[in-house]
Amino acid sequence: MQQATLGVTYQTGSVPHQARVVICGGGVMGCSIAYHLAEAGWTDVLVLEQGSIGCGSSWHASGLVGQIKNSPHATRLCIESVDLYKELEDQGHSVGWKGVGSLNVARTEDRMILFERQRVQTQGQGLECYIISPEEAKNICPLIRHEDIKGAQWVPGDGVVSPTDVVNTLANLAKQRGVKIIEHCQIQRILTEKYKVKGVETSMGSIKCEYFVNCGGQWAREIGQKSRPKVRVPLHSCEHYHILTKPIEEVDRLMPVVRDYDGRVYAREWGGGLLGGGFELEAKPVFHEGIPEKFEFQLLQEDWDHFQVLLDPLLHRFPVMEQAHVQQLTNGPESFTPDGDWIVGESPEVDNYFVAAGMNSAGFAGGVGVGKRIAQWIMEGEPSTDFSSLDIRRFVDLHNNKRYLRDRVTYTLGYHAKLMYPNLRDEATGPTRLRTSVLHTRLMDAGAIWGQIMGYERAMYFTPDTDDYMDSSSKRPQGTFCKPNWFDYVEAEYWGCKERVCLIDMSSFAKFEIKSRNQEATEYLQYLCSNDINKPLGTIIHTGMHNLQGGYENDTSVIRLDENYYFMISPTSQQTRGLNWLHKKLPKDSSVQIRDVTSLYAGINVVGPRAQDLLAELTDASTKKADFPIMSCQEIDVGHASGIRALRLTHSGEDGFILYIPSELTIHVYDALMRAGRDYGIMNAGYYALRILRMEKFFAYWGLDLSTHTTPLECGRDFRVRFDKDFIGREALLKQREEGISKKLVHFTLVDHDKETDLWPWGGEPILRNGQFVGTTTSSGYGYSLQKMVCMGFVKHLNDNGEDVVTKNMSDYILDKNATYEIDIAGKRFVARARIHTPREALTTSEPLFIPVPARSPISGTASRC
């Protein structure tokens, strides 16, 4: 039996007994993956669609293709989508591509600053972007009201597509190359064996396969529940609106897409009329009890009252719409994720189970590029780009809780238009006090201001009075591009860590225990880690774990507690990812056991020169460096509490200890430290102070400075690599050591930056060497000891054509006396001094200071500039 859909004929009624790759979902993601696999010669591919191709959210999409996204990785995927649209049009395949450009208008100075930051950040992507005046914006699109805007961002390479034509074309081309596409076939179960994909059971029969790809759109979470173990795909549907007018005489067929982010709306030409929609601050979640059966080519009930918050700014920005006739108000369900970013990659629960979903209404902007990269990942076994900000392994179980998702996506739909300040990339909206330390109440009483990572609420800094510059009920930092309101508070905490003693709650760090009966645990970790793990008991080993290319899969501290018993500490963001990497490499004979003990132990970082004296008052163990040396661990008593793992390191470069405490004993230990610490000027400190301390010391951090595509030789950590043993990535690193590198992590201080009046760097700023773009910053902040702005970032060695040059003299290239460096912050360039080692001034304090905690911090950085 054959059926025609969207002009292409697909099979129904039976399925093959096996296929190398089974793709679930016939929308833009599924068809893109099938197309790219087939283009590369992988034709034993089967696409299963429960309804008809394109029947989900594809058919009612608005078809906008904006390339500038919040992360450079997402931007790159959107650029690749545009490249394919152009290529297909050039080949005679109609996908409705029109390169009409994007005109993004700004009502506020802060929005203009964001546009300027984005403009300079696109330098490394090869994307044209311009900042223009209100009058120039009006000339580009005469339909807009421009009197109330400050300016606009013009991206001429953006455009629009016809969604159904895109899906139709990709599906047809994949089919022509040998891909099988079967409609009206429901996935009933994904079969697994030893945590690996084995096959699928469908309404038409069973299929053996090596790879399964979940491209189920708003059904993706439900599909994730159909395997054992279940796969987390955290997304939830919301109502999503756009209005379509009948043809309007003034509308040009090549009108640009106009986005008014401050009004939360957009508009494009469609059939001679205007299609306008938006992203309201509070959305309406739907399908909480489940998506109805056979929900194909269907819409939801119109709700004009709800749409009014978008209709008003549309009418304001486009006065011509006031007299236009409405053709349709479309309310089509779209899926959104907890953090507003896409869900991409191989699942941590099941090997060879990939997910490409949760595009947050940007499926046609980035979906084709995502499909290309997922296809490459399947074929090559490793991702060809850094997916860290989009990786499905950034979630934990709570993110997949349906009630949490329903309440969360109410706000994340609005992230599309929200002015996302760079210093507020932590999750900042939705359910709070969900995942917290046992010290949460103590820290809240002390004036903690909260951020979130992996759903974990942690103190960023402390202040006794917050009412003057934030909603005190939210207790979260305020966004700014300039000197932040917390500057004075963090300064006090910083000097508390440098001169006295501070407590930092580090409970959110991921913690794993690895053990075996015999030597298997040691042999296993020796193979995973590039540093030598076979050290005396009580030794702390800082080490990387690498992929076959030598890039970092994890950056961790490993403590040998016993002959075959190890305690591993990783960044908070690595809880799922790090555990997944450990499980992937486990011996098949089950000789090594791994346990996630993140919640079993709280962590208190006791930082500062008086930390040794303070701890000595509460324990019988000697805290002298001769008896308790740096990078060692002992089990000690503190106060009345026992069984505490004390580590002599602080992740800050300052002396001190991290105490890993059984959770039920944590309050007692914290209170005992605070009481005994009064004589030492003890205070609480947050992650902002820790961040500044580690940046001044040139300590790279996984997820910001280190990634799957950076190696120890590139970040100056090759001294921690033991090449005389076998480990994953050794061959790649040996080759790099022999041939050289093309980029290196550099420490910059800005010479002519005024922290009071200039915009601040927040990460992602272009680095220029002799006027040539050579990289972007990864971490930035004000160094209180250096009294200058500090930036870290990778500098590339490029030839005159902008191509990477591999050299064994990368340090000489960076420190060449004829080289001048600048950091571009929103269009203004600042002279930067480059170093490849920790600045001496950051190691010692020449003029000790005592800075008390300010009672109230002055408001700054909230107006137009600084």
Q: Would you give an account of this structure?
A:
This protein is of the alpha+beta class. Among the domains are: 503-508 and 601-680, Probable tRNA modification gtpase trme, domain 1 (Gyrase A, domain 2); 509-597, Aminomethyltransferase beta-barrel domains (Alpha-Beta Plaits), CATH 3.30.70; 711-843, Elongation Factor Tu (Ef-tu), domain 3 (Beta Barrel). 23% of the residues lie in helices and 27% in strands. The chain is built from 19 helices and 41 strands. Strands 7-8-6-16-17-18-15-19 form an 8-stranded mixed β-sheet, with helices on both faces. A 6-stranded mixed β-sheet has the order 10-4-3-14-21-20. Strand 20 (343-346) and strand 21 form a beta hairpin. Helix 1 (28-39) packs parallel to helix 5. The termini are far apart. Residues 1-7, 466-474, 845-853 and 855-864 have low confidence and may be disordered.
Q: What is the CATH architecture descriptor of one domain?
A: Beta Barrel
Question: For the CA atoms, what is the radius of gyration?
Answer: 28 Å
CATH topology of one domain: Elongation Factor Tu (Ef-tu), domain 3
Order of strands in the sheet with the most strands? Answer: 7-8-6-16-17-18-15-19
Q: Output the CATH homologous superfamily of one domain.
A: Aminomethyltransferase beta-barrel domains
Measured by DSSP, the beta-strand proportion falls in: 25-35%
Q: Please tell me the overall pLDDT.
A: 93
Distance between the termini: 68 Å
Structure summary, number of beta strands: 41
Q: What is the approximate shape?
A: globular
- Count helical runs: 19
Sheet with most strands: 8 strands, mixed
The assigned structural class equals alpha+beta
CATH class of one domain: Mainly Beta
Helix content: 10-25%
Low-confidence stretches: 1-7, 466-474, 845-853, 855-864
